Amino acid sequence: MVEFLYGIEVVINGLMAGVMYSLVALGFVLIFKASGIFNYAQGVMALFAAMTLVGVQEGQVPFAHLINSVFGTQYHHFGWHINAFVAIAVAALVMLLFAYLVERYILKHLVNQEPIILFMATIGLAYFMEGFGDLMWGSNIKTLDVGIPQGGNFWIEEKTAFLGGEDFYGFYLDTLDIYATVIAIILVSTLVLFSQYTKTGRALRAVADDHQAALSVGISLRRIWVIVWSIAGIVALVAGIMWGSKSGVQFSLSLIALKALPVLMLGGFTSIPGAIIGGLIIGIGEKLFEFLIGAPFLGGATENWFAYMLALLFLVFRPQGLFGEKIIERV
Amino acid sequence: MLYREAGDFKVSYQADQQTFPIRFDRLFFWALLASAYFVVPFFINDYWANAVLLPFLIYGVASIGLNILTGYCGQVSLGSGGFMAVGAYTCYKMMTAFPDLNLAFCILAGGVTTAIVGIMFGLPSLRIKGFYLAVVTLAAQFFLVWMFNKVPWFYNYSATGMISSPERTMFGYAITGPNATPAATYLFCLTFLVVLAFLGRNLTRGSVGRKWMAIRDMDIAAEIIGVNPLMAKITAFGVSSFYVGVAGAMIFSVYLGAVEVTEAFGIQKSFLLLFMIIIGGLGSILGSLVGAAFMVLMPVLLKNIMVNSFGWAIDIAAHFEFIIIGGLIVFFLIVEPHGLAQLWRIIKEKMRLWPFPH
Predict the structure, then answer these.
(1) Confidence of residue A225 (pLDDT cuts 50, 70, 90)
(2) CA B309: distance to chain centroid?
(3) Which positions ≥6 away from B196 have C-beta within 8 Å?
(4) Among A180, A278, B187, B305, which residue is least crowded by beta carbons within 10 Å?
(5) pTM for this structure?
(6) pLDDT-based confidence at residue A1 (cuts at 50, 70, 90)
C-alpha cells in the first residue's frame, strides 16, 4: 500500500518535472512552426535570460570583469537591488532586443538555406551567447530569487498523510513545481488565445502553414520572425526563471534544451499541445523508470538517457510523433 | 603559370576521376606528405605534438568518419562522442586483457566494435529521418556514456572510474604511456590518418560512396535506380562508426593516456565534430581535414593571442573563445554554407582561369 502511494508520489513529481520540460519544448515548437528552424539555442536563451535577470536584480555591472581587467578598475556592483518585477521586465526587453538582432544579423542572411545549415547556425548562436553571457555577467553559479517559495509543501503533506498507515507521511511536493505548473498553464493558455484570436496570431499560424502563401497575401515574414523569436525569448525567460530558482543559474541550464528534444520527438515538432503532453510523458516515464527499474537494478542515474531511448523506440513505430503532421513517404 | 592544365583532354574514366587532376596539386600533396613524414618528426616537441598535431590528426580521422555519415550519406548524427567512447573502452579492454597484443590491432578492434554498435544505433535510420534521427542518435550518446560510467567491468573496477593506458610499443618505440616520445606518437597517428583518409577518399568515389550520395540527395530516386537504402545506410553507419571508434581509441591511448568518460567523450565532442565538418565542408574528405585543423588551431591561436600577448585573464579569454567560435560558425554559414572546401574549390577554379576569367 505504502509502495503504491510512493508510486503515485513519483508520478505526480514526474508530472511536475514534465511541466518544466514542456516549458523549454514550447519555445522550440514556436520557432520551428513559424520558421522551420530547429533552434538549438533555446536552452542558452533560457540561461542568458536568467543571467540577465539576476544581473539586473542584483545591480551587477555588465562586463565588469572585462572592464576591470582592461582598465584596472574595480567596478562590480551599482549597489542597488531592483524589484523582481522590474527586473523581469528589463530581462524581457533584453530578450526582445535579442530577437530583433538575431533576425537582423543572422536569419535574414540565411533565408532559403537547408534546415541543417539553419540548425548549425543556431548552434553557433548558442556558443556565441554562452560566451557573451558569461563575459557580461560572470560565469559563477548564481542564485535566482524572484519571490517564488521553495521547498516541500507542508500543507499538502499534512492533508494527504491520512491516506497511508503509520509509515506514510503524505505526498512530498515542491512548492516551486506547483507554481511552475500554474505558470505553465497560464502561459500556454495565453499563447493559444493569442494565436487563435489576434490578427498577429493568425498571421503566425499562416506562416506556420505555408511560408510562400503567407508571403503572397502580404504577411511580412521578417516581422513574423522577430515576433516569434521574441515570444520564444519570453518563454525562455519563464523557463529560465523556473529552472534558475530550482537549481541555480549555471551552465547546466543550457543542457535542458537537449532534454526538450525527446519531448518534441514524442509530441511532434509542430504541435503545442504535443509539447505539453510529450513533456508530461517524459517526466512521468523517467521518474517511474528510475523508481521501478533504474535505481533498484541498474545503478541509478537512468534519467540521463531514458528520455532519448523512449523517443528512439517510439519513433521507430510512429516517426511523426504523437501529434505531428503525418509524413507520407514511400521508401 | 604553375597552376595549369592544358585543356580538358581526358580520355578515360580513370583520368576523369583523379583526386588531383592538376599536376601542381599532385606534386604539392606528395611534398606535403614527405615533409610530414621526414621533416616534421625531427623538429617536433611536446607542445606542438600535444596542443596541435596530435589533436589535428586524431580529430581528422573522426571528422572524416562523421563526414562519411553526415556529408556523404546525409544522416545527421549527434552520437559521435558516445561512439568514440566505445572505441576507447574496447581498446582499453583489449590492451589490458591481452598485454602482448599489438597496439594498432587494439585500436582497430576498437573501430570494429564501434562499427557494430554504430550499425545497431543506425538501424532506426530506415524509418526515422532528418532531425528526428539526430535526436535519436543522442540516445546513443547519453546511453553509452552512462553505461561506461555505471558498469565497473568496462573500467576494470578501478577506484576512480577512469581508464588509463598501459605502455605499448611499436617497432621498439613507446607509443603510449609516459615514455612515449612526441615523434613516435605523431608518426603513429599520422600513419593512421593517411591510411584512413586514403581509404575514405577511395570509398567515397567508388560505387559505395556513390550509393551514399544518391541516398543523401534523394532517397526515393535512389531506391528507384536500384540502390538498396538499407544497405547504403547501414554501410554508412558502419564505416563512419569505424572511423570515429578508431579516433576514440587513439584519443584515449595515444593522445590523452587517461580518460574519464563524461569529460572526454561528452556531448561537446559530438558537437565539436559536427562543427568541424560543417566548417570544413560537408561531403569532402579535404574539408574534414581542413575543418579539423581549423577547430584545433583556432582555440590555441586565440589563447596565445589573448593570454600571452594581451595578458588577459584566462577565463576572459575562454569566454571570448566561445564568442568567436560561435560568431565564426555563423559567419561561415552565412558567407559559404558549403564550408572551407567549397571556398578552396572556388579559388582553384579562379586560379585555373587566371588571368583570363572569361
Answers:
(1) confident
(2) 31
(3) B61, B64, B243, B246
(4) B305
(5) 0.84
(6) low
Q: Using the beta-carbon criterion (under 8 Å), do A113 and B275 form an inter-chain contact?
A: no
What CATH number does residue B259 fall under? Answer: 1.10.3470
- Give domain status of residue B290, yes or no: yes
Q: Amino acid identity of B297? A: L
Q: B116 CB contacts (<8 Å, ≥6 apart)? A: B238
Per-residue pLDDT tens digits for B55-64: 999 999 999 9
* Beta-carbon separation of A258 and B267 below 8 A: yes
Report d(CA B242, CA B255) in Å as an integer. 18
In DSSP terms, A142 is beta-bridged to A249
Q: Which residues of B touch A108 (CB under 8 A)?
A: none
Q: Using alpha carbons, select from B125, B25, B86, B71 the residue that is nearest to residue B252.
A: B86
Buried b (16+ CB within 10 A) or exposed e, B111-137: bbbbbebbbebbebbebbbbbbbbbbb
CA A81-A82-A88 angle, to 5 degrees, is 140
Cα(A106)–Cα(B204) distance, rounded to whole angstroms? 33
A115 to chain B: which residues are within 8 Å by CB?
130-131
| CA separation, residue B240 to residues A116, A230, B187, B209, B219 (Å) | 19, 39, 23, 12, 19
Rank A46-60, A71-85, A288-302, B105-119 by mean pLDDT and report only the highest: B105-119
Average of per-residue pLDDT across B151-158: 82
- Picking from A55, A46, A47, A101, the residue whose alpha carbon sits closest to that of residue A82 is A55
Query: Is B11 within a domain?
Result: no
Instruction: Name which of B139, B81, B327 is nearest A258 in CA terms.
Output: B139
Residue at grid coordinates 583523379 = B18
Amino acid identity of residue A260, one-letter, is A
pLDDT at A331 over 50: no
pLDDT at position B358 is: 66
Burial of A325 (0-12, 13-18, 19+ CB in 10 A): exposed
Distance CA B235, CA A132 (A): 41
pLDDT of the residue at A165: 61
User: Complex ipTM above 0.85?
Assistant: no
Nearest CA-CA distance, residue A288 and chain B, Å = 18
Region B84-106 average pLDDT: 88
**Cβ of A135 and B143 within 8 Å?**
no
How many domains does chain B fold into? 1
Mean pLDDT of A169-179: 74
B261 lies in which domain range?
44-353
Say if residue A289's pLDDT is above 90.
no
Among A27-36, A55-64, A245-254, B111-120, the range with the most confident prediction by mean pLDDT is B111-120
Average pLDDT of chain A?
Answer: 79
Residue B23 lies in a domain: no
How crowded is residue A90: how many other Cβ atoms within 10 Å of its Cβ?
16
- Report if residue B6 sits inside a domain: no
Annotated domain spans of chain A = 2-255
